[in-house]
Design brief:
Blueprint lengths: L4 H12 L4 E3 H8 L8 H15 L9 E4 L3 E4 L4
Antiparallel strand pairs: 1-3, 2-3
Helix pairs in contact: 1-3
């Protein structure tokens, strides 16, 4: 499936910082640099869409994992 520019930007940031937690704020600033109205709910929607496109099982993600109350982390295969 084709990624939207925003999904690509999120995935790029997550992979660039693989293994590290990226906070909601960090991801919002990188994916919505000119939109101060973007919020965590919008981020969650985009991450859900991204997971549907890149995860084998989006309901049990193995790559883009949620760090509750903090943000997201991209896990690389071991």
């Amino acid at each position: 499936p084709k990624l939207t520019p925003r999904e690509y930007g999120l995935l790029h940031q997550l992979i660039l910082h693989a293994g590290k937690v990226l906070t909601h704020r960090q991801l919002l600033q990188s994916a919505w640099p000119d939109d101060t109205n973007a919020d965590v709910q919008a981020l969650r929607v985009h991450v859900r869409h991204l997971r549907q496109k890149v995860e084998a099982n989006p309901q049990a993600p193995a790559r883009i994992v949620t760090e509750p109350g903090v943000g997201y982390r991209f896990l690389t295969p071991e």
